[in-house]
Each structure stands twice: as C-alpha cells, then as structure tokens.
Amino acid sequence: MANAIPDDSPRDMKEIEKGREMQNGSAMAHVDRYGFMGGDQYTDPDDEHRISFEKLRKREMKWLEMFENWEKCMSKRFKKIRERCRKGIPPSLRSRAWQYLCGSKFLMEQNAGRYQEYLKRPIKPQWEDDIKKDLHRQFPAHEMFTARGGHGQEDLFWILKAYTIHNPHDGYCQAQGPIAAILLMHMPAEQAFWCLVSICEKYLPGYYSPGLEAVQVDGDVLFGLLKKTSLPIHKHLKKQKMEPILYMTEWFMCVFTRTLPWGCVLRVWDMFLCEGVKVVFRVALVLFRIALGEPGCLSQCPTMYETLEKLRRLPIQTLEEEYLVQESLRLNITERDMEKEHQKQIQRRQKTKELNGDKPGRHKHR
Predict the structure, then answer these.
(1) Is residue 78 included in any domain, yes or no?
(2) pLDDT bracket for residue 4 (50, 70, 90)
(3) Which of 144, 133, 138, 137 is nearest to 22 (CA)?
(4) What does pTM read for this prediction?
(5) Could you list the residue range(s) of the whole structural domain that residue 183 is in?
(6) Phi and psi (nearest 5°) for 27?
C-alpha cells in the first residue's frame, strides 16, 4: 500500500533537490510564513491575501470564546462555527481549533499514554522500510522536513509507525505521509497522531485500506456529481473512458496538500475538519472547472493524455484562496445530492459483485 499515490514527478524531484541544497547551505532561502523555502507550496509575500490586524484580533477573540464553551457551541451554534471556519481560522489558533473540530483533543485525553506505548512496540519490517523510504518525499522544501534525519522527519516516522500499531489492518499507506506532515507543521507529534487517527477513522474511513475501495466509490460519486455541475466536462471524460481513480486519488487521499497553494490548503482544511468530506468533493468540482472549464479548453485535449495533464498541472499560481472557497460554496450541490449519489454507486457496485459471484460488499462510507 505504500504506492497508493503517484510516485514523485520531475517537479517533485526538483523540489527535493532544492531542499537538499538549502540543507547543505549552497543556497540562501527566504522562508515564507508557512515555513516553505521553495517549491510549488512556497507563497510569495507579495501575492498573499492578508486581513487587517484589527479584524484578525476580533476573530481570535471570538474563537477563544468558543473554546471556553465548545460543547455548547457545537450542539447549539454549529452554523456559527461553520461560518467562522469558512472565513478562515486565525493562524495563531489553527492548531487548537483543528483538534477541537476533529475531536482529537478528547480522543487524546481518553487515551492518555497510549501514543508513548505504541512507540515502544515493534513494527512490521516492510512497513518500517516503506515509511523510511517515503520520509524525504514529504514537503522537502519545508523547513521542518528539509534535513534528512532531522526532528521533523523523525517525528513524522514515529507518528506513521504508531498508526500502524494502532490500526494493523490498514497499516501504512503512502498517502498518510502528507496528512501527518501538515498536522506536524501545526502541533506536537502526539497531538498530530490523534488528529491523524481521527481523520482516518471519522473523515476518510476506508481510504487507506488495502484495495482502496472507499476511494474508488468516492471517485464514482465525484464523477456522478460532475454530471450535475459541469455536463460538458463529464461528457468529455466519459468519451475518453477516464476512470476517476486516475485523477482524483491524490486530491482526496492527501486532501489537496500536494495540489493547491498553501493558503488554499489551509482554508480547505479549516472547512474540511468542520464539515467533513463533502468539502473535498466541492473543491474537486471547482478544480474541474479551473482545469477544463475555459472556452476551447476541451478541444485542446483530444486524448486522455492531454486531459490528465490539465488535471494534474493545475494553474495554481493564479488560484486565490477566497475565490476557491466561494466557488465551492456556490455549487448547486446539496448534501442530499451527495448522499443520493453515494447510495447509487454503492448499489451499483453490489450488483456488479453479485453478478460476478461475489458476496455484497460491506463498505460503509459515512
């Protein structure tokens, strides 16, 4: 399961080499406010969207007030929490907010000492080898992960190892690396571990299991929703017989951490940890329009190769976080639409299995 997402592209390898040069001191790097020294995730300060200090301070005070009465807010004022997540969580409170939103804070409290216990247990040699081979691929241009064997890579290893002990059925999957890494950028290792557990078990159940059935189902769901939001693009992909697994695996399994500009990634995660996987579907549908929705774009993609290149090489340099958020919220797709399409795809798969002589699947997505 280590190669559930595509191997490093030439672009990724350039980023890795750049990170090594910075580590060796042969290049002076300006570190952006997210910790990136280069690569696709680097954010030019001149291109950043920043809110005023006064507005930021007001938002911080509102979040601190919610933290004091979190359970009451979640039960009686969830729409207000959702609205504030959509506006963007203040950077100074993002770590705490993510842990409250996904429930990992309470999960860690209920399992005090268990993470340290996991670290002491042995791991399957194959999983250990796979994890170590993948460590240098996780954001090599970020200051936490540039140094081979540095504290960032070391903590990343322990988190991924602990998860294989926590969930030996699924073990290690390469796509867990970027998820664990973004969490480590925001919080200590033990807190990041329990966030990872929550994401894998509550938000993306079955995504990292052998066979990737949950991912394949969601790919079919995404394709069905695309018919409702962008019919010409849907017809184009259907004509070229493009399976969703070809273009959506990295988007969904890595929750866009390897796809979008970092400001967009954080805004998407703010909403994702509040509202769930439906946010991932909405963002993916917007990305289809960005990649293939311009007039004349589909005619430039006569074969599957050109279409895949468009989807894999999104014009992210021009993508603004506020635009992405607002476009995702404007889509004419409801939760009912998503659930209806999901049930349709589950039933279709079960019928196919029965026709093939297999027992009906027990995949439960939500």
Answers:
(1) no
(2) low
(3) 144
(4) 0.89
(5) 10-24+32-37+110-203
(6) -145, 135
